[in-house]
Amino acid sequence: MRVGFIGLGNMGEPMARNLIRAGHRLTIYNRTRQRAEALGSEGARVADTPADAAADAEVLVTMLSDDRAVRSVLLGGQPEGTSAIDALAPEAVHMSASTIGIECSKELEREHRVRCQGYVAAPVIGRAEAARDKALWVIAGGTQENIERCRPLMEAIGRGITIAGEEPWMANLTKIAVNFMLATVLESFGEVYAMLEKSGMDLHSFLDVVNNGAFRSPVYANYGGMIADRKYEPAGFSLKLGLKDTELALEAGEAVQAPLPFASVLRDHYLQALAHGHGELDWSALAEVARHNAGVGRTQKAGG
Amino acid sequence: MRVGFIGLGNMGEPMARNLIRAGHRLTIYNRTRQRAEALGSEGARVADTPADAAADAEVLVTMLSDDRAVRSVLLGGQPEGTSAIDALAPEAVHMSASTIGIECSKELEREHRVRCQGYVAAPVIGRAEAARDKALWVIAGGTQENIERCRPLMEAIGRGITIAGEEPWMANLTKIAVNFMLATVLESFGEVYAMLEKSGMDLHSFLDVVNNGAFRSPVYANYGGMIADRKYEPAGFSLKLGLKDTELALEAGEAVQAPLPFASVLRDHYLQALAHGHGELDWSALAEVARHNAGVGRTQKAGG
Amino acid sequence: MRVGFIGLGNMGEPMARNLIRAGHRLTIYNRTRQRAEALGSEGARVADTPADAAADAEVLVTMLSDDRAVRSVLLGGQPEGTSAIDALAPEAVHMSASTIGIECSKELEREHRVRCQGYVAAPVIGRAEAARDKALWVIAGGTQENIERCRPLMEAIGRGITIAGEEPWMANLTKIAVNFMLATVLESFGEVYAMLEKSGMDLHSFLDVVNNGAFRSPVYANYGGMIADRKYEPAGFSLKLGLKDTELALEAGEAVQAPLPFASVLRDHYLQALAHGHGELDWSALAEVARHNAGVGRTQKAGG
Amino acid sequence: MRVGFIGLGNMGEPMARNLIRAGHRLTIYNRTRQRAEALGSEGARVADTPADAAADAEVLVTMLSDDRAVRSVLLGGQPEGTSAIDALAPEAVHMSASTIGIECSKELEREHRVRCQGYVAAPVIGRAEAARDKALWVIAGGTQENIERCRPLMEAIGRGITIAGEEPWMANLTKIAVNFMLATVLESFGEVYAMLEKSGMDLHSFLDVVNNGAFRSPVYANYGGMIADRKYEPAGFSLKLGLKDTELALEAGEAVQAPLPFASVLRDHYLQALAHGHGELDWSALAEVARHNAGVGRTQKAGG
Questions:
Q1: pLDDT tens per residue, chain B (304 residues)?
Q2: Which of B52, B189, B224, C97 could bridge across to B47 with cysteines, CB 3.0–4.6 Å?
Q3: CATH value of B174-293 in 3.40.1350.10, 3.30.70.270, 1.10.1040.10, 3.40.50.1220
Q4: Is residue B259 less than 8 Å (CB to CB) from chain C?
Q5: CB-CB: which of B254, B257, B275 is closest to D258?
Q6: Residues of D in contact with A295 (CB under 8 A)
Q7: Alpha-carbon Rg of chain B, whole angstroms?
Q8: Can you list the positions of beta strands (E) in chain D?
Q9: How far out from the chain centre does Cα D136 lie?
Q10: Which residue from C257, C265, C268 is facing A271, i.e. has the nearest CB?
């Protein structure tokens, strides 16, 4: 398939590589051209502009960091008519793998519809290692026909697919909900570790119970270990982006008048982390806020 | 081994049965004698009092609902000298499988020490089905010697053991911390489901992502399914006891000056559930509070 | 002075009336013309469009419900050039009494500056009765010169003025902060009353302590009484607008990375109130959420 | 009247002095005898034990820091029969001015009843300066007869009295509720100041609006000023005791299944303050937690 691919960050680059390896012909674009050129040597054509990447594509895949980036790259275009969306052929499909908000996804859906283009939201679960290992989980939203057209690409990057619904935004909301649940795990570890550490306990025997006795989940094993060992660099997914995702959950909740008290706690702790200069650490550093607030590492005084 | 066993509730009964099946000679006691007699027909001797169950035991196992019950059964005894702890022989070991607080566990440790008895805290992870299937995970706290003496019993009821530390309370704190993390999962499902349901989404395709794409954890599969289907009866572990466990976490946090904002949210939601008459449902009904507060099931009016 | 006045809601109408009574010549505009005509009989000229109200004014006063309304009325205008801001004369001053966000206020400042118009943010403290009684408190932000030009109007509607700073947005942020503090009082009353009522206590003797012993504040007397008596209609200020103000506080906090945990609780409770259909009640009905969650009024069952 | 007075702390000492000045004959006791002797020179007799202070009293006034202290002083007494409550004459009245919990107050009521002694709970509103200036507000709970017997003492220490109900604990719960509301004001100031300071605003013009435009309350003026100026020493009422009072509110709420989300936030912030060593500062230092978490005073970095 002729595939345009925009956005070669931590996640996008290994995804694009897996598409190349699966035999697709890629035209790739990245704001920082350097990252694109590495893949150029593996067989992709490097485009000069987003529009250039979109022009000839049967499917245009985007993997960008947030709503603003998606809007700017897809719809931006100065002068009028040079945006990626205008370059994309009618009948082509845009497969948007970015984690974006509901409103932004609905806007894309409208914009593609008026241009007779297809649109599939296909956010993915998994970090950079999973992207590299073809082990992402794809959440697909869109019409059955459009999803089928993108399926070979989804299969080339992931180990499984869930169809969230006929509406593309349903895939985005699913992804937002999953990321919210993941973030609650980070906060839970932060609070529990603070309590255990101040009580003089060993975190690794606790983790043994978590991993073998209770949750038996790769998510808990991975984050529980990272947080126990305070390995927050290099960031697989930055704390700053974590805040963005919690904001998306709060917005989605507000849109349907659903309070999310846990998301409110997360937001407050993310802001504290940012205020203390930790925005570029891995989002699992969210757990440091609870530890810091509990005074872990300070010399204890009796009675405070 | 000659084993005394006190407390034949949802968890205690299948645990005792597995001990019998492993060949141990059990003397059992339960406040409601009826539950004891069922096991009596499987080979256990039914005792009339806690002291009677303890009198001849090499190891006394207790599986009771809370601090108060443990104190009353172990230390209670009127007149003076007829409590289970006084009936227990010196050199015998008390293996306490109940989920109790740190202070209560430390008190037991002192009481046993002055009587030259051993004390092992051995709370377990798993619900009634896991108890039946010999699939509990045992968290053991105590001296190596005492733990070794109890090991055959632990192996007869569970699929694995983690040693939390030399101090018995360390096992209790580990269990409290795990239960706190489990309760955060219930709340997370409640909030996320409220958002998804009010958005018109299908919970089961969300669960497919949770179970296959993200967490891949039996805990998430089990509770995610129960909450999606609102199966809260019969209660495997009652909401009222769930509150007790969150209170234990808050106390343990306060003792070391560690704030636990998630536990505070849980406590508030548990209280709301109790105030609305749901104390006897399964603790996973905690998730109903977030749904109720979001107005799930109400007819929506535009703009509230 | 020749004054344009846009927005004759609960607050705007009595403010406009006091300006008329102070001898100013008003041209008034309201979306629902009927409300304007009542004042027309008291000497104001009724304008057909926002631009019409602005055209001849030395000072244009606006009192609108939110950012969107302010943007639409001031900057809106179709076709191009017919908006109120374009009708306003250079050298005229816009005195914006609405409670709006920081970003919106900064945008107005820029728009007025490029047109050589003055801009003063002048949000007010007080409810409709205070507006009627000339008892508002005006928070003024802007250059000293612009504020002096508006001072006669401020004196005609209020009992005092605080100058928040040279930047108009500083007045807006002050107002947002005050409204946030007011909302925390509503929530506090809700929680405390729930506890007292479920304990079987009389709220009015509690209020006697609050009013005479502790706070001695008209705010506590007023809201404490309304909430005790559940008088939420007619709404002086609607719950839906209360949520808007808390959102403004959260946004202002996020802009400077300041977590506001109390505002997060307020937001969650506002959303619950909206989800249950109470958006048009007075914002003091926020207190009903805490009462409802505590099950006030339900028949209690022992142990939940 | 012959008055026994136990507890000469920040509050107790000026209260006792006002009783002496009103012409009552005081026998005083304080754990640290030194504080008692200062008052001895003003006409009080200094007792050697709590029992000694109670022995001859028509009314025994106690002003102690918490449940534990009240229980130890009143009921303690080793050997049996030497406690203050046993020394107090039948028909005498105990007027308990301490801020204690509901359960403790109910226990005192029972203990006095079986001894045919009267019991009035009479906690007071006001800080040390109010105690000195005879400006406390007394919340009285008990039978009309007992309250009347204590009235001259209440009038000698305060500027007004509210009768909370026939049950002594009702006065305690009223006091707990008021202190909870006061603490929410501290937290509100903390959050709002953090937002204003990080936005570059002047706190004193904000306070002008709070004091003259909005709340017009001595409580807001006093704490708003202390927190703006960070004057937390000497402590009028320590942060450690503030936590105790929030715990009393949470307990009272739990007893009737009333969630108190604001109290939960307060508790978490108190614990953070204690964990960071601020337990002996004035309780208004609670506001520093919100400021600290927002990074007030840190050098800001763009984007965290």
A1: 999 999 999 999 999 999 999 999 999 999 999 999 989 999 999 999 999 999 999 999 999 999 999 999 999 866 666 789 999 999 999 999 999 999 999 999 999 999 999 999 999 999 999 999 999 999 999 999 999 999 999 999 999 999 999 999 999 999 999 999 999 999 999 999 999 999 999 999 999 999 999 999 999 999 999 999 999 999 999 999 999 999 999 999 999 999 999 999 999 999 999 999 999 999 999 999 999 999 998 754 433 3
A2: B52
A3: 1.10.1040.10
A4: no
A5: B275
A6: 272, 275-277
A7: 21
A8: 2-6, 25-29, 45-46, 59-62, 93-96, 118-121, 124-125, 136-141, 158-165
A9: 11
A10: C257
- Contacts for C21-24 with beta carbons within 8 Å, 24 or more apart? C21/C156, C22/C152, C22/C155, C22/C156, C24/C152, C24/C153, C24/C156
Distant-in-sequence, close-in-space partners of C204: CB < 8 Å, separation ≥ 6 = C228
Does residue C48 register a pLDDT over 70? yes
The residue count for chain B: 304
- Tell me, what DSSP letter sits at residue C6? E
In this structure, which amino acid lies at residue A63?
A: M
Residue ranges of domains in chain A: 2-166, 174-293
With the CA atoms of D168, D172, D177 and D181 taken in that order, what torsion angle do they form, in degrees rounded to the nearest 10?
140
Pair C157, C131: CB distance under 8 Å: yes
C281 torsion bin: left (phi>0), alpha (psi -120 to 50), beta (else): beta
DSSP B112-175: HHHTT-EEEE--EES-HHHHHTT-EEEEEES-HHHHHHHHHHHHHHEEEEEEEESSHHHHHHHH
Active site residues of A: 175
Tokens read off for A5: 């691919």
CA–CA separation, B37 and B56 (whole Å): 19
Whether the per-residue pLDDT at A302 is higher than 50: the answer is: no
> C2-166: CATH homologous superfamily?
NAD(P)-binding Rossmann-like Domain (3.40.50.720)
Residue type, C13: E
Nearest to residue B193, comparing CAs of D66, A258, D252, A111? A258
D window 267-286, beta carbon within 8 A of C: 269
Set of chain D residues whose Cβ sits within 8 Å of the Cβ of B274 = 257
The number of beta carbons lying within 10 Å of the beta carbon of residue D141 is 29
A107 vs A67, A101, A103, A169, C140, CA distance in Å?
Answer: 11, 10, 6, 10, 39
Query: Are residues A146 and B172 in contact, defined by beta-carbon separation less than 8 angstroms?
Result: no
How near does any CA of chain D get to the CA of C99, in Å? 15
Name the residue of chain B whose CA is nearest to D263's CA: B264
Token match 């669960």: residue? B207
Is the pTM higher than 0.90? The answer reads: yes
Does A239 contact D at CB distance below 8 Å? yes
Please write the tens of the pLDDT for every residue from D177-208.
Answer: 999 999 999 999 999 999 999 999 999 999 99
Q: What is the pLDDT of residues A112-152, one digit of tens each?
A: 999 999 999 999 999 999 999 999 999 999 999 999 999 99
DSSP three-state, residue D134: coil
Single-letter amino acid code for the residue at D236: G
Which amino acid, residue C210?
V
Strands (E), chain B: 2-6, 25-29, 45-46, 59-62, 93-96, 118-121, 124-125, 136-141, 158-165
Chain D residues within an 8 Å CB radius of B257 = 271, 274-275
Is it true that B2-166 and B174-293 share their CATH fold? Answer: no
Alpha-carbon distance D196 to nearest alpha carbon in chain A (angstroms): 14
Using the structure block, give the residue that is written with the tokens 């956010």: A123
Is C106 an annotated catalytic residue? no
Q: Which residues contact D183 (CB under 8 A, 6 or more apart)?
A: D242, D245, D246, D266, D283, D286
Instruction: Please enumerate in sequence order all residues whose Cβ is within 8 A of that of A172, keeping only pairs 6 or more positions apart, or say none.
Output: A99, A100, A101, A102, A105, A121, A123, A141
Segment 156-215 of chain B within 8 Å of chain C by CB: 198
